[in-house]
Amino acid sequence: MSKLLDGAALAKELRQQCRQNADVLAARLGRKPGLDVILVGQDPASQVYVRHKVADCEEVGFRSRLHRLDEQLTQAQLMTLIRQLNEDSAVDGILVQLPLPAHIDSRAVIETIDPAKDVDGFHIHNAGALMTGAPLFRPCTPYGVMKLLEKAAVPIRGAEAVVVGASNIVGKPQALLLLQAGATVTICNSKTRDLAAHTRRADILVVAVGRARMIGGDMIKEGATVIDVGMNRDENGKLCGDVDFASASEKAAWITPVPGGVGPMTRAMLLVNTLEAAQRAAI
Ligand code: GUN
Fold it and tell me: Are 62 and 271 a contacting pair, CB within 8 Å?
């Protein structure tokens, strides 16, 4: 039976640290660290996410502002708002919730954000800097996964790491962070032949696909560390990950639960990134 990588508990610790640092910083800056969140349209999942992000900021003593914008907003109008926030010295972090409506070019919008305020780590400057060494910000989910591995003292140098899923938000940056930490990394995608042959070699397996319970215990090496980034509803409407927890936990040494694993860490790392942005602004 495996041990749980408790993301909820570690995220709580990180929020407490953020709160203490925010208070010190607020005394020095004469203002609170500040995050501006932009939501365009009515996507129900996005509405929940942004509410959490704003509530998290308030809990740790950050200033946060939610810009709720109409679905019909033009790309030019959105970019004008972002440029205003770039210039506003009370704004440390800017987050544009994705997905954006189809008439807006997400890439162009993200590139409008000042890289020094890009707390999602999605700007090409930060993505490129992640590849070459030292980004200003690391994307929150993969950064949170690295913190979970660190907390459990999972050995990364020399380990076989397999990342299933190659998105710009999770899979690709996750692979780069693991590589930087000394792992030998394989990235699998939807075209991968014999996925199980790869996953069974993994000392560290990160799954970020978005398909309920697609990785069973038979695809996991005995003693592996299994990180489940998925957040799905199964046929009964029950929340579940991309990994079949019941069978996987028979094989893994460490495993993240869903919920309570990676999700809370993603939220916590947004606070950490916002705090880092404010700390840099204070220098
Ligand atoms: N949509 C789903 N996940 C994310 C995220 O981490 N950041 C942003 N901006 N949008 C998202």
Answer: yes
Nearest C-alpha neighbor of 262 from the set 145, 179, 177: 145
d(CA 140, CA 269): 5
Helix (H) or strand (E) holding 64: strand 63-69
Which residues are catalytically annotated? 53, 97, 120
Tell me the sheet residues that pair with 163.
187, 206
Residue nearest to atom 11 of ligand 1 (CA): 98
Mutation pick for ligand 1 pocket among 35, 39, 67, 98 (CB with most ligand atoms within 8 Å): 98
- Per residue in 166-203, pLDDT (tens digit) is 999 999 999 999 999 999 999 999 999 999 999 999 99
What are the φ and ψ backbone dihedral angles of 218, each rounded to 5 degrees? -70, -10
Residue of the nearest CA to atom 9 in ligand 1?
A: 97
> Which residue has a Cα nearest atom 3 of ligand 1?
98
3-state secondary structure of 130: helix
Rounded-to-integer distance, Cα 34 and Cα 90, Å: 6
Ordered domains of the chain (ranges, CATH): 30-114 (3.40.50.10860), 140-262 (3.40.50.720)
Where does ligand 1 bind, in terms of residues with CB under 6 Å? 95-98, 120, 140, 169
Question: Which residues, including other chains, have CB under 8 Å from residue 256's CB and lie 6 or more apart?
Answer: 4, 5, 7, 148, 226, 227, 228, 241, 262
pTM for the predicted model, two decimal places: 0.97
Q: State whether the Cα torsion 235-215-174-249 is positive or negative.
A: positive
